[in-house]
Design a protein that fits this description.
single chain; about 90 residues; GIY-YIG endonuclease; three-stranded antiparallel sheet; about 25% strand; globular
Length: about 90
């Protein structure tokens, strides 16, 4: 049974987060750190700072959309640190 992940990456160089979902976290991180066109292709120091596992792609994508709607670096940092009340059980 395939698992899906919601994940948050961080680049120290850019001091930015990237939020996404995937069925292969390691492969996705490799692609983010490759030289490509797009936001994450600018640097290659992306690191996984947070992830959650889901049974379906739809659940992982739903979580991604929810966190992106926050538009708040502070709320994302709180989630990463486990201080968020919006952390799933």
């Amino acid at each position: 049974m395939e698992k899906y992940c919601f994940y948050i990456l961080r680049s120290k160089t850019l001091d930015k987060f990237y939020i996404g979902h995937t069925s292969s976290l390691e492969e996705r991180l490799r692609k983010h750190n490759s030289n490509h066109k797009g936001f994450t292709g600018k640097v290659n120091d992306w690191r996984i700072v947070y992830s959650e596992e889901y049974a379906t792609k739809e659940e992982a994508y739903s979580r991604e959309r929810l966190v992106k709607k926050w538009k708040s670096k502070v709320r994302i940092q709180e989630l990463i640190l486990g201080k968020s009340s919006e952390h799933p059980d």
